[in-house]
Structures
1.
Amino acid sequence: DLKDVVRHELEHLTQDGENIRTGKYIPDDQDLRNMIDSGLLDKDSYFSLPKEVDAMIQGLYYKALVIIM
């Protein structure tokens, strides 16, 4: 599980900022995150944020590879 969390967070580093990778850019979603934190949006909305979906998919790929090996 720790490796999955690290992989998830590493994926976020490739989505914007200094470590962005070609084709990985996802626009800033801090406004939506603030709305979720303040209760203006349902907490479940967090899991449908594009940055989170992409990072979770990468985690699923990682787990699938571990199971296969």
2.
Amino acid sequence: MFPILALMVAIPIAFFAAAALLGKRFSKLLACASTLIILIIALALIASAFVSGTINLSESYTFLPSLSINFSLALDPISLLLVTMSGIVLFAAALAGDVGEVDQKKSAILLLLFQVGATGLFLSGNFLVFFVFWDVTLVASFFFINALGSGNRKTASLKFLIYEIFASSMLLLGIMMLYTSPLHSLGFQALRGPLPSATQLTILIAMMLAFFVNMPVFPLHSWMPDAYTEAPTRGTMLLSGILSKFGGYGALIVLSSLTISKSYALYIASLAAISIFYAAFSMLGQKDIKRALSYASMLEMGIVLLGISSLSAIGLEGAAFAMFAYGMIMALMFLDVGVLFYSFGERDIRVLKGVLIEGRGIAFAFIFGAFAMVGVPLTAVFVGDILVFLGAFSSFGAYSLVPLLSIILLGAYLYFVIDKIFYRAKDHSKPVYVMDRIQGLGLALLVFFILLFGIMPFIVLNAFK
């Protein structure tokens, strides 16, 4: 059998090494080439899954035979969704996300390192591989904020690092508890084995704390608004679009596998609802569009956690599809805000006005993104939200629909932003830079996939049969 999964991990590693060795002029080309190749492979696998009705691939390579530890890779419908989403976001970020950046080579190298971690994590077949690629991506994320960020980047990156060290420690604790259990395994499937209740509870608490940091979930979220705001456009696209999905993917694996999860599902759903409303009300008080969108991202990951906590087939499927959709939409919004800031020199809602007059492309992309974020039909977010709330309703009843009110708050805030900065035009803002075609192409790419999988969700959902 051809080692397609190993190849998907090896390609970004090779391009990362090449970008580090070659000069600045090749860095963006290498980043675009690597991300495009992985995206093409992922789309080809989706086509294969659509034709066959399912997909399950696995590869294993001897790593530490004396400890019965292998380097395992696997691909199922959920990981295929997330690999494809990361491919789309990474390619858009490589193509157009470097707007306003000075150090192009460093940015491209960090993007390729992030691609190594993201691709490896979503293709991981056991917790050792998951943990290794988790930490690889955290290194890239830290330097995106610390080295390429703006303003208060040092404080933001330090706060990010402290939280992520805690998350990695908790994840490692959970992995060690699993490995030292009677099952003596690092495989995801070991979570379904006959583990003692105390061991299951320790694994559940430790791992969920790690995943709550990355999603993020209240109250482990305070690193997020600063990190998202201070990171460069490309970095924020990756943090919000992909890194936050690490937590969602891990939570989906753990909660759907441990038998003890059913006893705590209602508590996790309640925490998801609290996190959703906390994010919604925090967003309402923001004046910086980028900071407001960071809370919108937190709100959406709360919806994902609600779907996962339902532990129903439709809820888990919905959570996976919602992560797929949210990854693309948040990348679109942060790319658009990055172009807006570079073009008009402002992100403050109180200052910007009449942007539609001289920034039509920026305005139309933001308006489309706002409609997509609140789940307008024919967008991918609509499909994800419907499945999540159907799953939550089947498990928790009518109370699970209360978080729908947060989407109304989100829509109201986005309407206010659109009216304030795009349409009020008595004395419109003047651009200092005109969006070029490559940035327009990046925005169009994300819009295309959001519509494609919203209009034809069966292309990927067919594999969940």
3.
Amino acid sequence: LVRTPGQVANIEEIKEVVTDLGKSAELICQVKNGKEYPINWIKINGDKNPLPLSTGKILIVKDPRFNLNSETQQDSLSTTLKIDKIKKIDAATYQCQVIVGIGNKITKEVRLRVKTEVVILNTSTEELTVVAGERAELRCDVAGFPTPTIRWERVDRKVFHTGQLAMAGAQMVVSGATRDDQGEYSCTAENSVGQPKTHTALLVV
């Protein structure tokens, strides 16, 4: 909060925005008691340098998918950053900056999350050989949003060492492997986007 004569300028809380690939998203920055101050939008991309998108009422990013709209009310100013035809690269944290003086600003951040289908990562186990009695761990590493659910099954439809036909989670662990545990295991990952994805790993004991 920053004090101005007789009033306090502050940014309203911005809720996380979730959208689908190809759709649009609106990020709204509303400033109370500060309509005379310029609002800037910045894209914060992890370790990369922040990318300025707009300054005041001017859009500076050279991408036709981005639009900027400002609206003044009695004691507030809201600036809406709209992104059309959403891509994976748009998923990031966006910062609304209000410049209230030289070297003085107030900020609020909003996360834009883009729904993406399941991808099986190449760090997943292809084949694992262990000595009988050793611990065996098969990994099914995946990406996607919302977070995928993962289910393991034996390809030969035998029951697991737990006596169950399926196990949940990214890792399939056997604390003391036996010859009965040897065989192919299939993991299926799915979320609400696209089709489920399957990966097969071989355990040799």
4.
Amino acid sequence: MLRDYVRRLLQLAAGIAVSSLGIVLMLQANVGLEPWSVLQQGLTLVLPISYGLATVIAGAAAIGLAVLLGESFGVGTIVNIIGCGVCIDAMLALDWVPQLHSLPGGIAMLLAGLELLALGTWMYMRSALGAGPRDALMVALARKTGRSAGVCRICADILVTVSGFLLGGQFGIGTVISALGLGSLINLNFSLLHFRPAKVHQENIAETLRYPRSEDRRVGKECRSRWSPYH
């Protein structure tokens, strides 16, 4: 049981790291920010905060809306909100990824970042420890509307982009590519990996606290089959 839980935690951490790297690539592509980055940059322009802290604030707002739509949140959600902000700030401070200044190179880097973000999303959602805030919102909308996760992500991204632009966030060709492309990439990756996020039971905080108790071990074993992303 402990080994299985550790494996899921490592999968969560890896997914957050991959997603954060994808976001940094998109930032450094310098061809227009992806939707949530537009909002987060807009927040840094109106508030005296770092980009990482803006990521935390935007994530908290997203999970709050998802909860209002009926989604729960878990350990993975909290780790995602805080972990992404810390990872992004650290990667930017270390200056691992140079900022590009050519349109073709920038678009190529942007597309690579989008793919990493889609892949990282699959990795941490597959751990079933609680979806990331934006993904929880995506899944909540998918369940409420009956639409695919990708379509719901596109709609949410468009609304977020408009909000961020009104706050002064950078808008460019990369923003359009991201707003329309990320949802499509998520759908493609999830389809190729046979992953249906709306069908996966994400472990909430109450279940995490209850799970280690010995009297719940039998229930936990039964629940793990429901957490499998392949069901």
